[in-house]
Design a protein that fits this description.
eight-stranded mixed sheet, 77 strands, flat
């Protein structure tokens, strides 16, 4: 492509320089070195302000070849085309009396400066030739590249102490003194210390550098040279530096690094406007750079790109160093799909731009820029490269024949290097075909929901959360997720009628406009504007704090009711306030009788409703109880309804002549729109649940039916004393009255209706509660619940473990489905009523199961094949044991004639009756249908799938893992009491054998071999093998350290409830996470705590680059060294290499690996003869690090197949001819041993950085995205730093690594489970799994399209237009009132996922408890700006 220059090969530059050297000086150069240019990704003009920068070294380099010579005269020549004349310069070595001085040509001054400031003596004279692929004046630091290359060349002639930082400082000093450019340290620093595959976060004050991974093969850093030449030696560069120094002095800081935005604001009147702008850029740019480094670590490229654009705008507008050519290049790049961000780079006034983009978007980006840019740009596709290095060094001696031989040897080496580069290039291409990291979809129920919305025309449901996320759901598979930049709770969600836009209100009082925009055939959720109400000067915050929102049916207006009683009218989508249409509280009060107003004001606007027959009339409800009918055209009140009780909600009936209002005393009133003004009494007032004090009815609605009486639906209203702890929605229709009783707090609800324009009979009641979404069928007798295809509460009982099984055989799949259907007979048979959008995702290529173990002893089977995590079947292990649970204890039952008529709905009930039931390990054999489940109290159940219910007794075997060791006494929990009588088990998985470990400690490892009919199990005391065909134990090995008393203590048992009634009460009396009705008095304190934590994290992240650490041996007396971490069955070579044998391998927390040889009788005598086990091998790792995984590789280096996999023709038979290898994965390293000798063959230290440990490991098959039949088995590793590594097998070489989980998210890391095809899932909250993919071929992500409804927007206010259904977002509008003081967020970041902003979420995953959500207050923005795009699947 024209203008697209491939980066010049170092070898080509070297050959050209050597050729010119021989022509100019005769003979061959002794030394060849090179040093790279750099591109600064972000952090411009911050280096000389002691700030942060984030550059990377480029493959563009300066090459110097030369030799030492006698005498004092030096000669240098450049063959760089754009260098100024003359191209050859001679000068004498400097002395104290005669230092080198500046002169012409300019390029030689950089060389002279380095020679002058070189740090070692005596420096010999030299001859050298210079060439470079770094464009001069392009902002890619050609000067630093030349300086560092020259210094590296001199190091070969006269070695210095090797201090790289001092080397960079000396080169910087050379530029200061001889080029007269007062540059910062960044350019020289990265040219010296650059690291391949990494950018470098440099602290220009401490000179500490932290490598930031940037090796994603799907990314390209495109450099575009405007070919507008700039020079920094004029007045502009020194002028900017001087302005920054002046600003720092006025602020009383040593540099702008120490200044904050608040410092700058406080000194604004002491700074002239230009100096103020310069300082503002530097302060904000330093903060941007820190955020950008964090985003890059997380792989948040959209966020990084956004910061790049912000940086460019600041350089253009505040620092004023851009130019029209650079602005045009950035603008053109940002118009191309696949471009994350673009900015000018370098000093400015011309030069280059740097663009971060997807690799597959490179060609179209170049083409688009060439079409849009009036000049002649040059393009460089680059990746992070190494810093300065020596290419060649040898000293000439001996006869010419020797030198000829050396040249021949050099040529051979060069040929080998070319071949190696080609092989590496081929491997890099193959990696792109095999590996690609994506976070694709979130499964489960949104954590801490706070708002609900619904669009009848789009048939889309919207849920906002307290952490600022907005999620949209339609038909199964249609999902979208957006994230507000502000870390604030979403309090309301409103769809604009008949449009694809929606508006969100946050508790920081900001409004945000989102749209569903089609892009490449799929829709993406895009924030297109934001707005904050501004009151008159001096107005108190309550004047503009929004409490109620009405999206007008015209689709063009928003009516915003406030805490101060005002109603503001805003035009959308532009968020323009129509001041002439605003409704002030004074206008309303002027026509109210004085005796009604009295000394009380009207309080906040509680509700806004539109007349269903005349959209130009709205009803304004005030908290005081007053309701006002307002005419938008006449701008006056038509009628006043003088309520006396505190208002909670209003509902305007479809006939337009009747209004319902609900109140805080548990009553609701019926009002008639008569025109009589004022109306002082309601037509009717009712308190549904009696005359005793009742709780508020927070929301009410009445839906008419075509035949018969209407449906009356309201939330709350329960008698305060008796049932004040209930979360209820009452449904009344004809003579049927039901109080739907939920186990968690109600957020909001709405009703879906049948018919055209959704005006028919009620179809379903949709209720969002704090822990689940419940949909009630209103058309089937008994009003059953409709099973949800998504948003299922994974945490209905706390998740304790998970297990993924890929490619389930169809027969087993159908049997599990059939068993699950029998469990779901109580659900409605009606289809799912929310069906908006089109699911365009291809059908899943295979059937995958996710099994989750829970605290209540259940194992839940989920269809994990596609975007929706759908519940298939639930297995309960509690019925095997005697527990405190009463089988008749069902809160769903209600006594006939009971008042109120409660009916429990929903499945969220996270409280286990006996914590010993908790599931800890699961293993399913998909070929045989055998399942092994292990629990907290040492119980291991073996189950088999059965299509019919069966009555049977579970046979128990007690295994003593202590083997009679004296002096040990178990102090932990007692084992569970097995039911001795036959138990009737429903169809599905039925237990037939139980292994009970003694002591009854938590089971820490299990393995199932269904072909051999064996189960291995381990705890903190030892491990054993159980034959479930003969139902007897085969062997036991005690691994307990005699000094380990902790292992005998056992887990802390929770205190069980004494009585059922107490247990039920405590289930309901749950501390609210945050007061939703009042201001939060501790807001400032919480914010200070958050800011302090973020600042500490920022400082921690900017520490010195980590160095490789030495692995130190752990003490054999450490606690839990005997804990069994992993168990593995293998048919391999243990005693000799001629005959394989079944074996069991066990790895412990103390770095020990035990191997047992298993002798199995022939199949025909399997029931007669016993299986025996004999100790065969034992390995003790020197560093005693915990063993987290074991894998045996066959003669081809492939992992051994699963049991029965070969028998089902689903895997190739293992190679039993070549030697096998054992791969031991410890927390510290991967180590490969040859079998049967167990001799060490190779190792890989993935954890060579301080604090890093292997936490999870799995074997995965990565198929090529280009060649259907090609793939590789690899090892996938997750560390405690949250980083994923893919390691090749059997070579155990690191292939790729990606940041995935925050290192602070300990529970998320612990919950991670890998699939067999390069995907994974981990908990991001107690109720949500995040799915990620490492495979370029296997990706499960939403692909969906939502089109604008065909209905036309109502425009005529004179016509009778029925309103759309309510969007359900009005109930919580008063529940999030908080003080709106302007707090500055000192570390504003857009997180990869909003839930991880709150550290307490991490604790909730472990403890299944609920903590306070801390909110970060962001600065309010009044100007609508483009937001962050989060397409479905991003």
């Amino acid at each position: 492509m024209a203008g697209d220059e491939s980066v010049a090969d170092v070898a080509a530059l070297l050959a050209a320089a050597r050729r010119v050297y021989e022509q100019s000086y005769g003979g061959e150069a002794q030394v060849a070195v090179c040093a790279p240019g750099r591109v600064n990704l972000i952090g411009e003009h911050t280096d000389y302000n002691q700030g942060l920068v984030l550059p990377m070294a480029l493959p563009l380099v300066t090459v110097i070849v030369g030799s030492s010579t006698s005498g004092h005269s030096c000669s240098i020549e450049t063959i760089t085309e754009s260098a100024d004349e003359p191209r050859r310069v001679d000068f004498d070595l400097p002395t104290e009396s005669s230092p080198l001085t500046r002169g012409q040509p300019a390029w030689a001054n950089y060389v002279k400066g380095v020679v002058q400031h070189y740090r070692a003596q005596p420096l010999p004279a030299f001859k050298a030739v210079i060439t470079s692929s770094v464009p001069l004046g392009g902002g890619l630091s050609s000067s630093a590249s030349l300086e560092v290359a020259m210094y590296t060349f001199l190091q070969q002639l006269c070695p210095d102490d090797g201090d790289k930082v001092a080397k960079a400082v000396a080169c910087q000093k050379a530029e200061h003194t001889h080029a007269k450019v007062p540059c910062g340290i960044m350019d020289q620093f990265v040219s010296v210390l650059g690291k391949e595959g990494h950018a470098l976060l440099i602290d220009c004050r401490s000179l500490e550098a932290t490598p930031v991974p940037l090796a994603d093969p799907n990314l390209v850093i495109l450099i575009t040279n405007s070919n507008v030449r700039h020079s920094l030696t004029g007045s502009e560069y020194p002028s900017r530096r001087k302005q920054c120094e002046n600003a720092a002095a006025i602020l009383g800081k040593s540099s702008l690094r120490d200044a904050t935005v608040q410092d700058l604001e406080n000194a604004k009147d002491r700074l002239d406007s230009v100096t103020y702008q310069r300082a503002q850029h530097v302060i904000e740019e330093i903060e941007r750079t820190a955020q950008a480094a964090e985003a890059l670590k997380r792989g948040a490229y959209q966020e990084f790109g956004k910061l790049m654009v912000e940086s460019h705008n600041s350089l253009r507008d505040l620092y004023e160093v851009s130019c029209p050519e650079l602005d045009a290049l950035v603008a053109a790049a940002m118009e191309v799909d696949g471009v994350f961000g673009s900015r000018m780079t370098g000093g400015g006034f011309g030069g280059c731009t740097v663009t971060l983009l997807q690799a597959d978007a490179t060609d179209r980006t170049i083409k688009h820029i060439q079409e849009r840019y009036s000049g002649h740009p040059t393009f460089y596709r680059t990746t992070p490269s190494e810093g300065a290095r020596v290419i060649k060094k040898y000293w000439e001696s001996g006869p010419r024949s020797v030198n000829s031989e050396r040249r021949r040897w050099d040529n051979n080496v060069a040929a080998d290097q070319v071949a190696e580069r080609q092989r590496e290039g081929d491997r890099d291409k193959l990696k792109q075909e095999l590996y690609q990291f994506n976070k694709t979809v979130e499964h489960g129920f949104p954590h801490q929901p706070s708002a609900l919305g619904f669009s009848p025309s789009l048939e889309l449901l919207a849920i906002g959360t307290r952490s600022g996320a907005i999620k949209l759901y339609g038909a199964p598979g249609v999902e979208f997720m957006g994230l507000h930049d502000e870390n604030a709770a979403v309090t309301q969600v409103h769809f604009l009628p008949h449009q694809v836009e929606l508006v969100t209100l946050l508790d920081d009082n900001s409004l945000h406009m989102w749209t569903l925009r089609a892009h490449k055939g799929v829709s993406e959720l895009l924030e297109i504007g934001r707005f904050t109400l501004t009151g008159p000067p001096g107005a108190i915050p309550s004047v503009t704090r929004v409490t109620a929102v009405l999206a007008h049916s015209s689709g063009e207006l928003l009516l915003l009711g406030t805490e101060g009683g005002h109603v503001f009218v805003v035009e959308v989508p532009g968020f323009r306030e129509l001041e002439e249409n605003n409704i002030s509280v004074e206008d309303v009060q002027s026509r109210i009788p004085e005796e009604y107003v009295g000394r009380r004001n009207l309080e906040c606007v509680e509700a806004l409703q539109e007349n269903p027959l005349n959209p130009r009339q709205v009803l304004i409800g005030y908290s005081r109880g007053l309701m006002v009918l307002w005419d938008l055209d006449r701008r006056c009140a038509i009628q006043h309804f003088l309520g006396t009780q505190q208002l909670e909600s209003v509902w305007w009936m479809e006939d337009g002549g009747n209004i319902l209002s609900s109140h805080s005393d548990g009553s609701y009133c019926h009002w008639t729109v008569t025109g009589k003004d004022p109306q002082t009494e309601p037509e009717k007032q009712e308190t549904p649940y009696g005359s005793f004090p009742c709780k508020a009815i927070s929301k009410i609605l009445q839906i008419s039916t075509r035949q018969g009486p209407p449906f009356l639906i309201f939330s709350g209203g329960m008698p305060r004393a008796s049932y004040g702890d209930r979360h209820c929605i009452s449904v009344i229709h004809s003579k049927t009255h039901v109080a739907l009783d939920f186990t968690s707090r109600i957020i909001d609800f709405f009703v879906i209706r049948d018919g055209e324009r959704h005006r028919g009979d009620p179809n379903a009641l949709v209720v969002l509660v704090e822990e689940e979404l419940v949909v009630v069928d209103l058309q089937t007798e008994g009003w059953p619940v409709i099973q949800t295809p998504y948003l299922v509460p994974l945490h209905c009982s706390a998740i304790t473990c998970s297990h993924h099984v890929s490619s389930i055989p169809l027969k087993l799949w159908e049997r599990i489905q059939a068993a699950g259907k029998l469990q779901n007979l109580h659900y409605s048979r009606k289809p799912w009523p929310i069906n908006g959008g089109q699911n365009l995702a291809p059908d899943p290529p295979q059937r995958d199961l996710l099994l989750t173990g829970h605290e209540d002893g259940t194992v839940r089977f989920w269809d994990a094949s596609g975007v929706c995590l759908y519940p298939m079947y639930k297995l309960s292990t509690a019925m095997v044991f005697h527990t405190d649970a009463d089988p008749n204890d069902n809160m769903n039952q209600s006594t006939e004639g009971e008042w109120p008529p409660f009916r429990k709905v929903g499945c969220f009930d996270p409280y286990s009756d006996d914590p010993r039931l908790g599931i800890q390990k699961i293993h399913l054999c998909k070929y045989s249908g055998y399942l092994t489940v292990a629990g907290t109290a040492g119980q291991i159940l073996i189950l088999e799938i059965n299509d019919e219910a069966a009555e049977q007794t579970v046979e128990a075997t007690v295994v003593d893992l202590l083997q009679g060791q004296e002096g040990f006494r178990w102090k932990g929990q007692a084992r569970l009491d097995l039911r001795e009588d036959p138990v009737t088990f429903p169809s599905g998985f039925q237990p037939f054998a139980l292994v009970q470990c003694q002591p009854p400690a938590v089971v820490t490892a299990i393995a199932l071999h269904s072909e051999w009919k064996l189960v291995a199990f381990g705890t903190s005391h030892g491990f054993g093998v159980y034959d479930y065909q003969q139902k007897n134990n085969i062997m036991v090995r005690c691994t307990l350290n005699p000094n380990d008393q902790v292992a005998l203590e056992g887990p802390l048992s929770r205190v069980k409830s004494i009585k059922k009634s107490l247990r039920q009460s405590f289930r309901r009396i749950r501390r609210s996470r945050v007061s939703m009705r009042k201001h939060n008095p501790n807001n400032a304190a919480k914010l200070q705590e958050i800011n302090a934590r973020l600042e500490a994290e920022a400082l921690h992240d900017m520490e010195l680059a980590p160095v490789q650490r030495k692995i130190e041996a752990r003490s054999a007396d450490d606690s839990f060294t005997g804990l069994v971490r992993t168990l593995y069955f293998a048919d391999t070579f243990l005693s000799d290499s001629s005959q394989s044998t079944p074996s069991l391998w066990a790895g412990t927390n103390g770095g020990a690996v035990f191997a047992y040889m298993l002798r199995l009788p022939p199949v025909e005598r399997r029931m007669d003869n016993q299986v025996t086990a004999h100790a065969a091998k034992e390995i003790q790792l020197m560093h005693r690090a915990p063993v987290v995984g074991l894998v045996v590789l066959d003669g081809r280096g492939a992992p051994l197949p699963e049991p029965l996999e070969v028998a089902h023709d689903l895997a190739r038979s293992p190679d039993m001819q070549g030697s096998h290898q054992l791969l031991v994965i410890s927390e510290e390293q991967l180590k490969l041993f040859n079998l049967p000798k167990v001799s060490s063959k190779a190792k890989l230290k993935l954890t060579a950085l301080d604090g890093s440990r292997v936490r999870r490991v799995g074997v995965a098959w990565f198929g090529s995205s280009r060649v259907e039949d090609y793939g590789e088995s690899s090892l996938v590793v997750l560390t405690n730093q949250g980083e994923l590594h893919v390691v090749s097998l059997p070579s155990i070489k690191l292939q790729v690594h990606y940041p995935c989980i925050r290192r602070e998210d300990v529970s998320g890391i612990a919950s991670c489970v890998f699939t067999k095809h390069g995907q994974g899932l981990y908990l991001i909250s107690p109720s949500e799994f995040e799915r990620f993919s490492l495979s370029a071929r296997w990706v499960v992500e939403p692909r969906c399209l939502v089109e604008a409804p065909s209905e036309t927007r109502p425009t005529s206010h004179s016509s009778q237009v029925h309103r759309d259904q309510p969007d359900g977002a009005s109930m919580e509008n008063r529940n999030f009132r908080r003080n709106s003081d302007n707090y500055e967020n000192s570390a504003r970041q857009v997180m990869e996922h909003a839930l991880l902003n709150d550290e307490k979420v991490l604790q909730e995953i472990q403890k299944s408890l609920e903590g306070d959500q801390m909110f970060l207050e962001n600065s309010l923005k009044t100007k609508p700006i483009p937001g962050k795009v989060l397409s479905n699947g991003d």
